[in-house]
Amino acid sequence: MTITTPVPSADTLRGLCEVHLPGDPGYDVARTPWNVAVDQRPAAVAVPRSVDEVVEVVRAAAASGLRVAPQSTGHGAGPLEGADLGDVVVVRLSALTGVTVDPDARTARVVGGTLWQDVIAATSRHGLTAPHGSAPDVAVAGYALSGGLSFYGRTHGLAANSIRAVEVVTADGSLVRADATTNADLFWAVRGGGGNFGVVVAIELDLLPYPDVYAGMLLWDRERAPEVVRAWAQWTREAPDSVTTSLRIMSFPPLPELPPFLSGRDLVVIDGAILEDDERADQLLARLRMYEPEMDTWGRIPAEALLAVHMDPPQPTPVVSDHSVLGVLTDDAIEALLGQVGPGRQSGLLLAELRHLGGAFARPAPHGGALSHLTGSYALFCIAVAPFPEAVAAGREAARRTVRALARWSQPSRVPTFTENREDASSMFDGEAWARLAHLRAHADPTRLFVANHQV
Ligand SMILES: Cc1cc2nc3c(=O)[nH]c(=O)nc-3n(C[C@H](O)[C@H](O)[C@H](O)COP(=O)(O)OP(=O)(O)OC[C@H]3O[C@@H](n4cnc5c(N)ncnc54)[C@H](O)[C@@H]3O)c2cc1C
Q1: What is the chain's alpha carbon radius of gyration, rounded to the nearest angstrom?
Q2: Which residues neighbour 297 within 8 Å (Cβ) at sequence distance 6 or greater?
Q3: What pLDDT digit, counting tens, does each position of 332-383 carry?
């Protein structure tokens, strides 16, 4: 005799807030994350417009034997691809947004699903900014709760260390505040463990005192990659912590919506920010400018404009990727990279990126949470565009190939925000932090109600 466990029904959620179940006209749009290559098919998508609605959905889901996956934009939905979500309610926080800035305290209170672009628009009115990432439409929650690498990072560390307090709807359906003195274990756990511990409905962030920043990009044809990558590698080995940059080797198809300097081109691009005065920043950049880039946009810009420097896609995009952390970037490692994505190669990738780590990224924060620093010197991130199902497998293999080619120089750790495949999340934390996270999760969420992209 086979015993089958009935899949709990999500019908009980109807009427609690905007809810889409399979078969409803709005279901397909509601279930689709920012990364449209991820085909997630949950039991329901709930779109709460108030904290009370979040509480009701979490309680009703738990009472019905359903699980809950908090999701703000779905930029980080990759690890859910292929997962059985038949008993999972995606709680989409895109309608629960807002920012309040306290310029005197230099903090901002950011509501659950708010995007970085809205936070920075609000802070910049006060001459302040925050440790946002490269894409304007990433949400603060998924980014900062998973670490968050900004172009301020080698000076100021991971964005998670800027979190002062969170308000969370926990597994028992209560709304709690957690900070350094109240619910301190939960406060420690969410700063790294994020969606494993509840639906975060507000985050209080420390802001940065920069009305403007020296930032921009240098761009060359990919033919110049061998000398430019070597020069950047040497430059980053000596760069002070005030310099946070990325190097990408990129291949764009010819598309009319792209500007001519990108359309149909293979390029090498270095971008980021330098937290120095103009004279010192120019001095530092001189060693890259001597390679005579075709385009040089570096200069002092309003801090808000840093959101556009990396040219991330402005709309939902189908992408697959792979990632590793490199301990060093030796000449041999550069050869291996160029062997995959250098001049003349058809890698199948949109880009292979190296983000420079080290500096404050590498220093444990004194009052940090589960993830307060990163090991390694460079994060390698390889991305392919996958607009149709067959392209998914091919893109994944292309990304994997380049990551594999650099395996000799990589280490077992992972950067959570750059990990878009389902992986053992223990590789994202040090051993002690992982053990404590697992222990806290077992107490805080004994039935494993919450489904995060990176599971503790
Ligand atoms: C174009 C692009 C550019 C990027 N640039 C950077 C960058 O510069 N630096 C960097 O570090 N990362 C970067 N990322 C990665 C990005 O930070 C992660 O994908 C992050 O998880 C996105 O957060 P989200 O909330 O928008 O995504 P979501 O997919 O909505 O969330 C990801 C996970 O975070 C958790 N989560 C989200 N919201 C909540 C909530 N309210 N409560 C509890 N848990 C929640 C959940 O576990 C969820 O599975 C980039 C990604 C893309 C696609």
Answers
A1: 22
A2: 216, 217, 309
A3: 999 999 999 999 999 999 999 999 999 999 999 999 999 999 999 999 999 9
> How far from chain centre, in Å, is Cα 356?
15
Q: Which two tokens stand for residue 89?
A: 């309610």
Question: Atom 14 (ligand 1): residue with closest C-alpha?
Answer: 417
Q: Name the architecture of domain 213-418.
A: 3-Layer(aba) Sandwich (3.40)
Confidence of residue 2 (pLDDT cuts 50, 70, 90): low
Pocket of ligand 1, beta carbon within 6 A: 70-77, 93, 112-113, 133-135, 138-139, 141-143, 145-146, 148-149, 194-195, 199-200, 312, 417, 452-453
**Residue nearest (by alpha carbon) to ligand 1 atom 12:** 417
Phi, psi of 151 (to 5 degrees): -80, 5
Q: Which residue has the tokens 């080698």?
A: 154
C-beta atoms surrounding 94 within 10 Å: 18
Q: Is residue 338 a contact partner of residue 247, using CB atoms and an 8 Å limit?
A: no
Probe residue for ligand 1, chosen from 132, 138, 453 as the CB with the greatest number of ligand atoms within 8 Å: 138
* Residues 6+ positions from 339 with CB-CB distance below 8 Å: 345, 405
Long-range pairs, 400-404, Cβ under 8 A, ≥24: 400/322, 401/340, 401/347, 402/322, 402/337, 402/340, 402/341, 402/347, 402/349, 402/352, 403/322, 403/323, 403/324
Domain map (residue ranges) of the chain:
16-92, 99-209+429-444, 213-418
Identify the band that residue 3 occupies on the pLDDT scale cut at 50, 70 and 90.
low
In this predicted structure, the answer to whether residue 1 has a pLDDT above a threshold of 70 is: no
Q: Which residues does residue 456 pair with via DSSP β-bridges, in sequence order?
A: none
**Could you confirm whether domain 16-92 is CATH 3.30.43.10?**
yes
The model's pLDDT over 209-218, given as tens digits with 9 standing for 90+, comes to 999 999 999 9
Q: Which of 8-12, 127-131, 439-443 has the lowest mean pLDDT?
A: 8-12
Query: What is the enclosing helix (H) or strand (E) of 203?
Result: strand 199-206
Q: Ligand 1 center to residue 419 CA distance, Å?
A: 10
Output the CA 362–ligand 1 centroid distance in Å: 21
Task: Tell me if the domain spanning 99-209+429-444 has CATH number 3.40.50.300.
Answer: no
Position with higher pLDDT, 401 vs 389 = 401
186, 245, 417, 421: which to mutate for ligand 1, most atoms within 8 A of CB? Answer: 417
